[in-house]
Amino acid sequence: MNAATPLDRAENRWYRLFDNPSPLLKQAPTAIAIAVAAIVAWLNPDLAFTQGLAALGGISLVLIATLHAAVLSALRVYDGWVVLIIPMVDILGVGMFRAGTGGAGSLFSSLVLLPVVWLAAAPGIRYVFVVAGFTAVALLMPYFTSPPDTTVEWLRGVIAPLVFAAMAAVINELSRQQRIRAEQAERLVADRTAALSDNVAMLVQLREKELQNQALVDSYEGLWSSITAQAVIGTDRAGRITAWNPGAERLLGITYAEAVQAVRVDRFFPDSVLTVLAQDCPGGADPRESPELAQGVKALFARVDAEQMFDGDLSVTTAGGTTVPARVTITPHNDADGAQQGYLFVVTDESRAVEVARMKDEFVGMISHELRTPLSAIIGFLDLLQNDPGQPLTDEQEEFVGIIERNAQRLLNLVGDLLFSAQVESGRFPLDRADTDVAELVRSAVVSAGPHALREGIALTADVPIGPVRALVDPGRIGQALDNLLSNAIKFTSTGGSVTARLVLVDGGVQISVRDTGVGIPKDEQGMLFTRFFRASTATQNAVPGVGLGLTITRAIVIAHGGAMDVESEEGVGTEFRFTLPAAPRTEVLTTLSIPK
Fold this sequence. Notes:
single chain, five-stranded antiparallel β-sheet, alpha+beta, six-stranded mixed β-sheet, 16% strand, 13 strands
């Protein structure tokens, strides 16, 4: 923008001077006109003063009004009645000057127009009447000393004020309209200025938002490029790939440019996985929307639509045909308005975790086998020592051998649990199913745990039907599961508490539960209870012995039978473990078997 020139600045000062003139500036025309008229009358004999005192009085009034205007201007008082007194005094001063320079025939009668215009332009119709009154007084002044002789002269003195009043009315109305237009113009300028300010503020905000958006885009692109440990894949509702991060390129072996060329996500799932998905997730997307998409992925999308998320272990196939174990999480992808645009896949390569788990299971199995043989030998030789009639043991030796045998048996049981958990993890979990009375299994487990409960001062009861409850199960494994639950319940229950094993018939099967009044389990730890080697904080705080395998083994046994297991617990109240087994012939009458404390 060019700087203003001196001429421009001078014009601006001139415009500002006349946009809101001071009282002295408004008074200047009248004062100058009276001064010029006085000089002309003084120098021209034909215009001699007929009444010098009247003329001098008129000049004095105008001078006083001018001084008053100068004071008001210095005080920056531009409006109000103190300002409008000036033109009123001017009208009287001009009238006296007219009376002193010839009266009705004075050459200077028209000077009264100058203050009349000033006064008539003031806001308000009342000033029209003020003009009429003051001009009537000014124009009739000569008649006060020399009354006219004819009616015509009187009429001249009356009509002239009316003419000035009419002119004042016109000026007043024009001024009013001009003020209205000026106010409208000012409002328009104010509105446009406000709009311009708003626009400028909006532009500033847009610029800030643009910078923020660019920063977010840069951050997103940086984050997107840095995700290489997981494959992040976006698809539309038909399964066509729309987003493909560097992690997807690394894991699945094709570039972004190749992936977005009408490639569907079902390409990266083996046929076996798609078949299982189609069976496990019935239903699917609208075939008209994705007619070529594999039925397994359609069913998977339908599940995501219903549950808002899928998270599970699925194998994926790379571009080179290699099958990779992976953890797959799928969520809907919605736009800013909440309308679903597709799906977002997060695929984590589980190859290393699977290999580590396999090596760990092999190691546990190998160590367990290596420990089991010498432990069995130790227990066998201990039995020979205890039962050798040729060399009987003393009482002290019997006690020592008993301690050795108990600890060796404990180690052997632990080794058995380790071997069993390794079989579960590797999928080599055999079951020897037989038609079994489950009620009798519960009774036997309660009887077996009775001595332990008696030593701890805990009431142990069994709620089971009187008659048999038949089920096709592995009695050894179900007995093992019951032993684990009862042992845990007794260990975590204080003296004076109770443990109840219950068998009830439910729709589609039988339910076995073990409830105790023990210390309970924190809610945030209940989801980890069935994890191998996990021990709740209440176990460590109360120094309860164990290695964290019992619940893992129990749950594996239940699942292997086609059942389900859950837990309900509250700290300080107690815990209940429940599991269901396939249906069996139903019996109605229940009885209670109690083991006293």
